[in-house]
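Chain and backbone:
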Amino acid sequence: MSLEPNSAKILHIRTMSGSEIVVAADDVRDVRSLKQHLQSKGEGSRFRMLLMHGDRLFKDDCSVLELPTDLQMVSLNFADTSEDQVGDLMEAAFLGSVAWLEELLQRPQDPNRTLPDPLGRPPLRRHTALGAAADGGNAKAVRILLEACADTEGCAASESDEVPALAQAAAQRHVQVVRILLEAGASTESKGILAGIRVTPLLAAIQSYRPQGPDEKSMEIVQLLLEARADPNFVGQAPRDVQHDSRPLVAACQGGHLEVARLLLEGSLRGDVLPPAARAHVAPALVVASSKGYLEIQRLLQESAPTVLEISTPQQMSHLDSFTPLLLAATWGHVGIVRLLLEAHADPHTVYGPDGLTALSEAAAGGHLETVRLLLGRQGLIP
């Protein structure tokens, strides 16, 4: 075996198909990095490779200096795997136990195996180790599983939820995992069920699990997804109770949001006059303000449209069966995400469901002043 200096060493690797791959020893450190190099050339997962010279097998930590210049590459089939071993792989992935994960994948074990339901029900669609790693936010585990050729559309699943890894990472605000999965080609439009709602990764990022709505991590994820061409106008289907009127002014008055109501009225003025379409909203808003005892709002409405005599009542609780990322972001009042979606050409004029809700009415109902201002500005109602 030649022990020529590393800088002059050229490795010749013979594949099972009979072709030869030539690698400069300077390009790799050890057997593991050599396998990674071969994987980048399309030779499959490094976990299924063996590198040999005659009967001698070289382990991953073997230095390139110790390798002969001619090697044989063998590609292994996946080993038989028990349900316990599949469960172990998912647990290692969720916990981010890199050493345990490497050990299991070296068997080699199929990273895309799923577990049957313990009660004998139809198996979950694609609940895989990659979904578990994404759920746990373990970037190293995600990278290792992708090296093992894990399906990027593998799901994280529970008894009621099942979402692709990218959507789960987005919902959990795992920014680095989202970035890795996007780089690996995960679909921005894969759909799943999260908390009973049909979502894409973009909707999952906005919906999140946080009672107070999206935070700055969510906003960063939204930006990453939009840069990856996620559809800002996707319409999801889910039942949802709506406890406010679909008209922005009425919704703002129901919530007692004085400054939002003032802004909406200012945005409706044509000169110093409210046009008929806007005045039609003042009457039900006035009824709401009066019935709830919001005296300042009542005074504002009376000053804005003193001649309104029409009697009307707000709509009752209704049922919404469609929504988009913009509606969801407006509901949370996350002005940064709303701005990103509008810049990505989300349509602020879209009407949602049979009740006629809009992003503006949702923002108004929540009293989200800056979001209302942004939406009015985009619609050309205020400068």
